[in-house]
Structures are given as C-alpha cells and as structure tokens.
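Why do we bother with a discrete structure alphabet at all? Because it lets us treat a fold like text: something you can write down, compare, and reason about line by line. To make this less abstract, here is a complete entry for Acetyl-CoA C-acetyltransferase. Read it the way you would read a sentence in a foreign language you are learning: slowly, and without expecting to understand everything at once.
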Amino acid sequence: MAEAYIVDAVRTPVGTRKGALAAVHPADLGAHVLKALVERTGVDPSAVEDVIMGCVSQVGPQALDLARTAWLSAGLPESVPGVTIDRQCGSSQQAVHFAAQGVMSGTQDLVVASGVENMGMVPMGSNVQYALDNGLGLYGEGWAERYGFQEISQFRGAQLMCEKWGFKRDRLEEYALESHRRAAEALDDGRFDSQIAPIAGVSRDEGVRPDTTLEKMAGLKPLREGWELTAAVASQISVGAGAVLIASGAAVERHGLTPLARIVQLSLVGDDPVYMLTAPIPATRTALAKAGLGIGDIDVTEINEAFAPVPLSWIEELGADPATVNPNGGAIALGHPLGATGVILMAKLVNELHRTGGRYGLQTMCEGGGQANVTVIERV
C-alpha cells in the first residue's frame, strides 16, 4: 500500500459570525485557501486529481458543489474536479481521509482536502429548515421505531455527558477558561502565523477572549434550566476555511515537494446517536490499536471542543496527559466553523508537531449521528 503524506496545510483566520469574514462568500473563502495552498507548495495545479471539500450547511451560497465552485473561483484549472461532502462536524476531516485513502489505494497521487463554512452568512440548521417548515421531520419511521421521539441534539447530548461523567458547571468553566488562556498565549506567541492566509484584512483568529474570567462565566444563564451547560463552555459559531495537500511518495519525488507529515492511521467509529458526542472515545481506542500505539505515544492531540464535556471525558477515559490535548486552545476559544474545522485542526496539529519536535499527532472530533473520525500522523 502506498504512503500518503501531508505536504502542507493552510487556513484562514477563524472569524466570528458577525466579524469581518462573515461578509465573504463561502466560494471565495474556499478559493482563498485553495489558491494559497497551490502557491505555498508550488505544485502544478493541473496535476491535482480531485478537490474534496467538507461543508455541513449545503444550501444557498454553500450549495451547488462548493468544492468545484471554489476551485474555479480561485482561477485554477477547469480540468480538476471537485466534490463536497457532509459528515457533519467531521466533514473536512473526512475529506482528509478520503484524499489519503485515494492516495494509499494507488489510484491517485495528488488530492486536495478542504473545508468551508460561513455560519454568519448561512446559519447552522439552514439546510434542514425546509423539512421543519413543511412538517416533514428529520427522521423517518424506522428511526422512530428504534429511538422513539426523544430529543436528538448536540445540546442534549452534551448535557447527558455531563450527567454520565459527573461534570459540574465549575469544572466545565475551568476547562473553558484554560482554552482561552492557551489560545491567547498561542496568538501572542505567533504560533498560528505560518499556517494562516490572511483575508479581508484579518490575520488573527477573532474569537479568543483573553480577558474572560470565571466570574464572567458564572454570570451566564444555562442553556436550559437545571443544565450544567452555558454558552461559555460551548464552541463558538464561526466562519473559516482550510485546505491540505495530500500526496503519494511518488508525487512528492516527481513534483519536488517537502512533506510535513505521514498518515499513519485513519479510523471512523459510530456510537450512541442520542449521546451523539461520545464517539471520539471508542474511535481513538480503535485507531491506536490499529496503529500499534498507546496514548502515551501521542505527543499532541487536537480534539474538537464542541462542548467542554467532549475533551474532558476523552481525557478521562483515555488517560491522556491534559497538557498535550489542545495545547493552543480549542473551539471554545478559537471557534468551530463546522465543515472547515477538520482541516483547520489538521493545520494546527501538523504545525504544533513541528514547533515542539513531537513525533505522533492525533486528531479527532465528535459528529452528528454519534460518529467520530480519528487521524494519526507522524511528523517527517
């Protein structure tokens, strides 16, 4: 089986839903990172065999195969096709998996994995509004027979996790505060500068609140009466895009590329769709077992902070060192532009391994339907 390498990973700053990036068309966000990736790597764009783009709310300006639209909007060759995929929050991490699997199968040599989401222009849930407005429901009879008519939502799933693992509000807020502290430190230290392609006059992630405090968080109302969750312990609604170039060993040599990392393991696991957010735990166990690694072998982990209970339960169940998990902050501080987050996390992971000299990195995230992708990489 052929090896798959990450040649480079580039992203926009992550903007807030009312920030400067909210007015940028999703196709132009995608075009920006695709063009930046081609320029940074020096690869001949006509040699790219596919562009795989994650996007969750594929409606309005994010409809009509955004991958193809973004590539053409970047002025890149018409001969290169594109496909847009939805695995909920893990959409662009799945794009990385599909790209790497194409290369590892030997059927492709150069594939771009990417992701875009403008949650300021296309609000979360826009793609399901038709069903709701017309009384069609989101689930059919088979689902109802299996799971009944109980609420299925990320919010309830996060609260159920709090109840299962015994996480109280104060612990969630302490985690959230640390996410902001780490992110602010990373911004001040310039750790993200090399991976960001500035756009619309923005060169830094907009969501970090270095002045937030536990006292400020304590003043927020819970999402529902009696719940542990508040907005402070949830990921931010965001805008962003990212792109990763995946290449075979033969393509690396042929095009004179310098890879940053090697793909070690690609795993995907399903779990309870009612809890929804717990799948990173079994998925990580599966990935580590297949890779022949232990959690102690992982130098850096990027796990999406959809809600604070997600990384907290993962750390507890896997026995991971908290210092190695989201060392530069996570989505609570930096934001979560849904379909783009997977490639944005990969950009952070690859760069942090090179900054610290670590060997193995692991990326995972919870996804709608109770799923999780896990990607294990090795720095080269």
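What the structure line is telling us, in plain words: The domain at 4-124+237-255 is CATH 3.40.47.10 (Peroxisomal Thiolase; Chain A, domain 1). The two ends are 19 Å apart (CA to CA).
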